[in-house]
Amino acid sequence: MGFDILTIPKRFFKAFSNLRTGIVLLLLVVIASALGTFILQRPMTDAQKMQTVYSPQTLLWLDRLSLTDVFHAWWFLTLLGLLSLSIVLVSIDRFPNAWRFYARPYRKTDSHFRAALPTKAELPIKNAADGLNAGERALKKLRWPAERIVDGNQSSLYSERHRFSVMAVYVIHASLLLIFAGGIIDGLFGYSGFLMLQRGETGNVIELRTGAKKVLPFSIKCYEAGQENYADGSPRKWWSKLAVVQDGKELESKEIAVNDPLVHRGLRFYQASYGPTGKVEGVKVIATPNEGAAREITLRMNEPVELDPSTTVTLAEFIPDFFIRDNQVFKRSDDVVNPAIRLQIKKAGSDQAAIQWIFPAYNPVSQGQDAGYQFEFRDMQMGYFTGLEVSHEPGQWLVWAGCVLMGVGLFVAFYLVHMRLWVVAVPDAKGKLVLWIGGHANKNKDRFEQKFAEVVDGIREELDRASAAPRSAHNEEAELTLVAVK
Amino acid sequence: MATRARVVRMETPAATGGNALLVLVGLGVAFLLITALLGAAKAGGSLFNESNLLYVALIFYAGAGALYMGFGVTGVAKYVKFASMATAIGFIANTLAVGHRWYMAGRPPFASIYEMLLSFVWTVAALTLITEKKFGVKIIGSITMPLAVVCVILMQLLPSEVRPLVPALQSTWLHVHVTLAMLSYAACAVSFALAMMFLIKDRFPTETFLALTSALVGAIYIAVVATRFEKWGGLSVTAWDANEKSDVFLGRGVRLFVTVPDLGWLFVMAGVAALVPLVFYALARVQKNDAYHGIANKAIFIGVLLQVVVLAAFVFRVRDASYPSPYQEGLYPTSLAASPFILGGLVTGVFASLLYLMLLWRRSDLEALLPSSDALDRVTYKTICVAFPLLTGMIATGAFWANRTWGSYWSWDPKETWAAITWLVYAGYLHMRITRGWRGRRAAYFAILGFAVVIFTFLGVTYLLPGLHAYA
User: Number of structural domains, chain A?
Assistant: First the structure.
């Protein structure tokens, strides 16, 4: 016994192309997926929570075995790959037979087949031609296709429906492979991340799931963004007016909302969130000079506004929630509860700027170094950001195609039955000529029994009608003559 | 010789007499309808609003359930005719209730647990009628109608206002996805009921049913006690904000729990009582003494009574009271709406135990009424053939909707992953059946396993594993 190199692929093929391997792989995928839902997964769970929930030793082992990121672990992806391989190999193994069955239907019966087939009936007939004609008429009436098979001087009928349903299972498994292929493509070539834009801002760098940054081939500019609320204040809709900008030119624009993304060159921009940035966009104050009329000015961060030819005022700092310690103003939190506004007033010819503070929650009037002006707080506008989810999924079309194909495949597999009927005139066991009718269905056999009985009854009716017809025609003639004589 | 068509419809043996139950149920239904009508007329307002229609549906489902169970116990065929009529009328009222809610909310009812139960009950009633008329399994109503009644009663305890949808839920694909989910889960539930009926007909030992019922109920109590038992015997339940009509949240996703004193001990007691029959079953097997089965059955009966006591205690103490919290100063109110899963678990325990007792006392009658085990096996398979494409559609539309809303069609979210696991389990059933020819008991076990996974996907994931899917 030499070592035959060809046996390795053969044994591999045998190992993977049977159902038991497939079921085992399926089971392993199920167990792994379940583990991935019970064990906290990174990066969705933040590191601190992981350390709170698991002891350091446990966490170490969980990380080592990739149980904290099961769905991206190499062994999980290998399992999915092996499952796909098993589907392919099983299909290759069984397809030739199925194709032979499909391409070369068994149209003519032989006596062994007729003896073995469980669903059959025999009707006595006078001669073969009449019997087959009656059969043909009955089948046509019941809307079965009737095909005449002529073999020398022997003639028989063959009728079948939905032959393609035997292929359905291969369609279903092919669609599953399509879906997997789409997922693999997206896993390898797809990416998704987050882009935060403020009003008027243009950006093209997104932050990926892993924290890394990626530069997009074009930029997105946010003209406007907003939030609509229900009567009770809960958010109803977030929207953004976006435009695609490349080389300074605007290529496309769209107002997006949740569930209605902007799609450009395969990249999709989804409205994911909307919220305050904590920074101020503009502050309205009334500037009153020591002598002169008051006027209202709007200040933007670090943009000096001219009060008179020799004085400018700038919004230098905005603290959303302040506290004072050691005569200095500090930030307590990012929530806009207790704001503090620092203004710098510069006079021409002087290097130093006078500083004034406004604490709107306490006193709208500014206080601080003397600068020739007093400022009274009127209003402020907070900045908002629009949160866009960006994703590039080139493989998704394969996934959707696979889903549709699977829907079709399942429908054909479960609801279209491959049914066959054979009708042939043969002598029965006692030697008398009978019309042998046989039927077969590949599923839903109890329903088929009913259909078969209908066909047999129909053929019997046709046979009776054919044998009764000459006599009744004769009677009619006789009656007519009688009437005429009267 | 021609083979005549064999009639494959399942015929049940005719039984004579027995108008008493019909009259009783008819009177009961009429009485409840009249009092409801008078109550609604007195309260003023529209007669055909959602809650009235739902109450009418409840009355007719309860009547149908009583008649189906009567059929199960006595075998009088007449009961089924009236039971289906009652189911059909209840179904019409249910449909009108769903329609009314849809109209008032401007969207189909899928956004809260109240609405999910409403849709689920509607689907269960529809499937009961279909299974009975198309497949001839007349006894299915005796399981599904009481289930529908239980669900409607549960719904009365939940907040029912129409809440506006958060942005992510406003999509047509959502409606398609949730409809498919409801239909497929209902089909899986029916396949589960049929598989159980197969086991009953197939002479699956009553003692094993005893062990399984005891294990299930025990598991429910163990789950509640393990997660909610507080030191000194209290039970922690979620606090309820009556103004916001929602759970009280301490922070993002972190709920505030209050401690209801002594309720923990009651649950422990009921849990122990639920496991006692299992212990006696084990004793019977180990010591090969069947006498223990008798004791185990008595223990189940006592266990049921205890469970009802615990249910009543839970309802009365949690319904409308305030309790202290170990996490924050002060007393916080609580409500049954804040603990739908514990309530559901208690009701399921009682329900399962009562079904077991019905099996124990009337097994031979039930067996005589059921279609042949072969027919039941086949209908289970057909039901799964309905459920599987629906499950596939549910997952596909869910993926499509997720893609439109969050930019990713598959993010291995726990609910998505468990839906895929459910799909794989049923695919396994179909493979074993079609390719390996598994029939009978093994197929029934597989179908039951499939439904257990469905329950976990639908309820367990929401309760135990939070994620993106935390809407309902």
Answer: 4
B433's CB contacts (< 8 A; 6+ apart) are B381, B439, B443
More confident residue, A162 or B111: A162
What are the tokens at B58?
A: 């409840």
pLDDT digits (tens, 9 = 90+) for A216-269: 888 888 888 888 887 777 777 888 888 888 888 888 888 888 778 888 888 888
The whole-number pLDDT of residue A409 equals 95
Residue B184, helix vs strand vs coil: helix
Q: Looking at chain B, which residue has its C-alpha nearest residue A274?
A: B167
Number of H helices, E strands in chain B: 14, 8
My answer on whether A240 and A116 are in the same domain is no
User: How far off is chain B from A251, nearest CA to CA, in Å?
Assistant: 22
Chain A positions in Cβ-Cβ contact with residue B389 (cut-off 8 Å): 407, 410-411, 414
pTM to 2 decimal places? 0.79
**A192 shares its domain with A151:** no
Chain A residues 111-170 within an 8 A CB cutoff of chain B: 119-123
Contact B412 A410 (CB under 8 A): no
A92 and A150 belong to one structural domain: no
Q: What confidence tens digit (pLDDT) does each residue in B443-458 have? A: 999 999 999 999 889 8
Do residues A325 and A461 both lie within one domain?
A: no
Same domain, yes or no: A273 and A397? yes
- In contact, A223 and A201? CB cutoff 8 Å: no
Statement: residue A103 has pLDDT above 50:
yes
Q: Cβ of B167 and A236 within 8 Å?
A: yes
The residue range of the domain holding A79 is 7-101
pLDDT score, position B16: 46
Q: Residue B229 has what DSSP assignment?
A: B
A19, A122, A403: residue with CB nearest B396:
A403
* Separation of alpha carbons B80 and B129, rounded Å: 11
Using the Cβ of B8 and the Cβ atoms of chain A, whether some distance falls under 8 Å is answered with: yes
Coil, strand, or helix at residue B344? helix
| Strand ranges for B233-304 from DSSP E | 235-238, 240-241, 246-247, 249-251, 254-255, 257-260
Band of the pLDDT at B466, cuts 50, 70, 90?
A: low
Query: Which A residues, 401 through 420, put their C-beta within 8 Å of a C-beta on chain B?
Result: 403, 406-407, 410-411, 414
CATH value at residue A421: 3.30.310.50
Decide if A347 is inside a domain: yes
A353 domain-assigned: yes
CA distance B63 to B54: 14
pLDDT interval class at A393 (50, 70, 90): confident
ipTM of the complex: 0.76
Length of chain B: 472
The interface residues of chain A toward chain B in range 80-99, judged by CB-CB distance below 8 A, are none
Which residue's entry shows tokens 């997006």?
A256
Contact B125, B134 (CB under 8 A): no
Cβ neighbours, 10 Å, residue A158: 19
Q: Which two tokens stand for residue B466?
A: 């939070």
Contact A411 B421 (CB under 8 A): no
Half-sphere exposure of A218 (CA within 13 A, CB side): 20
- pLDDT the model gives residue A186: 86
Check whether B416 has a pLDDT greater than 80. Answer: yes
Instruction: Kindly report the number of other CB atoms within 10 A of residue A259's CB atom.
Output: 20
| Exposed e or buried b per residue across A18-28, where buried means at least 16 C-beta atoms within 10 angstroms of its C-beta | eeebbbebbee
Are A48 and A90 contained in the same domain?
yes
